[in-house]
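Reviewer 2 asked us to include a model.

Predict the structure of this chain.
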Amino acid sequence: MLESNDKADVLAALTFLGGRHFNEPGRASFGGPTESQDAWAFQQLMDSARIRELVERLTNSEDEWIRQAALLAARGPRDRPLN
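Predicted model (structure tokens):
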């Protein structure tokens, strides 16, 4: 999706990658369910050098929304806002 010609696809992928996805220990401190179905997928994607390269390339996009979403996705998970 990061290489799609459809900006909505790119933004959707960057939104997922720029979000916070807690594994069981991380979610316990927030109450509610203790497992995130997305945490495993998120970690696999962020461990991929190819995905990190694509996100980095998008930080230079001419599209302001894509550039800002890519800058957020490029930040480490601990540097992302919780709200």
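The chain has a mean pLDDT of 79. The two ends are 25 Å apart (CA to CA). We have added this to the supplementary material.
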